[in-house]
Design goal:
alpha/beta; 6 strands
Length: 256
Amino acid sequence: MKRDFRDRSRPLQEPVGAPPLPRTLLLVAAVSVAVLTGCATTQPMSTARRAVLPPQRYQVRPQPLPFIPTPLAVRPRSSWADTSPIASRLQPMGTPWRITVHHEGSDSDELFSESAVSERLRTITKVQEQSVGEGGLGAGDLAYHFVIDRSGRIWEGRSLSWQGAHAGNGAANTANIGVVLLGNFDVQEPTPSQLLSLQQLLANLCQRYTVRPENIYGHDEVKGQYGLPSTRCPGRYLSAWLRSYRWQSAWSRAAH
């Protein structure tokens, strides 16, 4: 019987591996390891939280909400993708009320040019679209709705019309916008340009969908809510920034 892809209760699988791609094996292995590292389950939740550095370390401090979001320049999916989404694997998003922030897991400093980022996004998408048996997610498109590269450019991932495949399972993905920053923020800090773009993107999404500051999460926090295996994502540096951003945004909201 044909599966109704509109069934939002169907869980999505999480593990990501290294299926064969039309690039060299070395590139495939590197990207697959990066994807795995970004959402690895190698550190208990409590240990990961204790390791976070204080927000004062950051050169770019988060600004409180509410403020008037600036228009965003978002590069459309068509600017990087060379295939169409697999519609039979997608489920309608509905109205989102929460946002989950991830890191991609690669500590490469080469992902600054538009061509390099486009190639990375195509490769990650192919990895994630592989079947679970082949080590992929069985996803219908890139798992995330937005990507922020090391230069601060914002890229469209899967359309906001479709539920993401980034949070851990179907329940965790429901009404949940996925934002991923390129980098491994356990071992490197987000660039100032990335943090400014993230701040602007969050403000725009919060205003558009009335998302409350307390409903902006790191991937580790969402997994903890659903009793899923722990993860280091989005990395200690970005986790610290997110906590500071939430606190300042909630304080500003209460003051108004």
